[in-house]
Fold each of these.
Amino acid sequence: MRNLLQRHFDWIALNDRSYEFLFQRMGTDEVVSIDCETTGLNTKKDDIVSIAAVKIRRNRIHASEAFRVTVNPEAVLAADSIKIHQIRKQDVEVERPIRKVLPDLLRFIGNRPLVGYYIDFDVRMLNKDLFAMLNIGLQNPTFDVCDLYYDRKYGKAPPGTQIDLRFATLLADLGLPPRQAHDAFNDAMSAGEAYIVLSDLKARGIYLKRTTRSGPVHAPLG
């Protein structure tokens, strides 16, 4: 989350005052689980091709209130990215560009905290277009389920513990059902479920069992 001084400068820099609600307290305990699929992993050159977001209220995911949209990107849909998210050129040709999608997304998420797996990537992708639109970045606090999982699994781990932070491993370890990966809605749902379970474990002071085998660190993968 941006610090108070940065938020003050962002409020001054905001070039459309109809979006001042992004700086206001929501008056709710809701959070939003969000995921973006993209043309690649370069936050400067690649673009978003789909976004999904679901609200979490009182530890329940409200899938019926989901935000789901396919985006027509400016960047080329490369074959490698199509193999991952299965979104083709013909699937996006009739869709709106991100500048037309962002207003609806911002009104859906408001200033609610955002939840996701490796969420920093999603925020950077959104901020690239948000800066062009409003001259500011997202103001929302963020919770990365990867960090929450690390805390519950490896926070007190001794040296030599094998670390695996892959999304599929995380979900299996939490006993959550598998879904087709690299689908924005599925990933947002899975991240939301992981957030609920991990928040409950933290509240009860429970840590996940781990092995002590030495081995490579398996870093987060979208």
Note: Residues 61 and 212 are 34 Å apart (CA to CA).
Amino acid sequence: MRSIRPTLLRFFWLALALALAPLHAAAAADTFYKGKSVTFIIGSAAGGGYDTYSRLFASHIGRHLDGQPQVVPQNMPGAGSIRAANYLYNAARKDGTVIGMLDEAIYLNQILGTPELKADAVRFNWIGRILPNSAILFARRDAAVQKIEDVFNKELIVSTSGTASKLNWTVLKKTLGMKFSLISGYPGTNESLLAMTRGEVDALSMPWSILRVRGAQMIRDGEIKLLLQTGTEKEADLQRIPRMIDLARNEDERRLLELFSSPSLIGRSVVAPPGLPPERVAELRRAFSATMQDATFLADLKRAGLEINPMTGEQLQAAVGKAGQFPPALIERARRAADMIK
């Protein structure tokens, strides 16, 4: 009997250690964010769709992180979100106290080999998607273009404050011969809208989730004309508005336009730098999912006339990982169409 007791004693201490291990891990998670603040980098100017969703999300996620840190939004516009992407990837703290939202075309820029981009989209830690994005190209009432087919014969001056919009209209211009004239000097949606009201540009694009609320009066009064959807799927209430891929004249053009429509899957997504501890990524993803189900967050969305269609961080990470799996010949053609190769 005496020989059995040391074995039983060792078994007891081992069982106790295993039982307490999760409690120690939980305590560590509880204390990490306590007393800290989280910076939420917004890769666009104030006032647009990215800014709206970013600020609303940032105002709620802190309650769902252990320690309930303050979350402070910070706009970092520049080069269609590439400035913010480079910062998050290369300079931001890699401990979970800096997260953000980037232009949905960030991985498309990588596929196309945009030289200014110093980041690998696959190595980011993708925390979750709030909703996919189909941007709508719309023009002022007195523009020469009143439907998208007119752009084959008439010039349309478009403000392109975002990377995705600039790529889309460049591809349609070079591949289909559409008469887009692109203006990229306005830093954000607000400035582009003012430019349109002043007659400096004819058109711009905006996510339908934002435009249908913000531009509801303009749409009802006929002050703007909806021309084109950029997403791969048609919006339920815009069945008569063609998609970008509907303009393709053959299968090769369709495959090319599908590539440029693909960023709509990422839409409004939350991302963290690479190199975070796995437990911090897991905690951020848990807090993201909790925020998507938060009654107060959902009530704020409803008051703002906004919607969500979430995707978990794990699903989003897998989707981005597959993003570069396009035939080299298609990527080469896409680079030429996007003016990446002269």
Note: The domain at 31-132+267-337 is CATH 3.40.190.150 (D-Maltodextrin-Binding Protein; domain 2).
